Amino acid sequence: MEKFDDQNAFIKVSTPAPVDGASKAALNRKGNQLYNDGKVEEARRVFMTTGYSDGLSRVGDYYKSKGRPLEALRMYWIAPDKAKAQILIESLSGVLKSLIKEDTMEFKND
Asked: Which residue, 105, 82, 85, 81, is CA-closest to 93?
């Protein structure tokens, strides 16, 4: 786990700030425009502020496509998009099982 210390690997979940309906809609439109323009990080901040689940899920898809599964999982978890989160959790648990198995085999060979 030490190698993840500098990567903000743990999921931090917070409640979005309350935003009135009209402001939320305008911010979500702005976030969608930013996302469509390829400004994913800026869009993520907007979606986090408004709690826009579809936007957060799309950002998660983007992170997943870029090989950033922990960040994708965080977005799916916050969205909440349980189906996509579950797929990543199962995949990551498989990786962990393999690492543990390799570590156990190395220990037995020492």
From this structure: 85
Q: Which two tokens stand for residue 55?
A: 């936007």
pTM of the prediction?
A: 0.75
Using CA atoms, how far apart are residues 69 and 67, in angstroms rounded to an integer? 6
Q: In which element (H, E) is residue 40 found?
A: helix 40-50
The closest alpha carbon to 78, from 101, 107, 51, belongs to 51
* Per-residue pLDDT band at 8 (split at 50, 70, 90): low
Instruction: Give the model's pLDDT for residue 96.
Output: 87
CATH of 19-109, one of 3.40.50.410, 1.25.40.10, 1.10.540.10, 2.60.40.1120: 1.25.40.10
Spans of all domains in the chain: 19-109
Residue 60 has, within 13 A of its CA and on its CB side, a CA count of: 25
- Residue 79 binned pLDDT confidence (cut-offs 50, 70, 90): very high
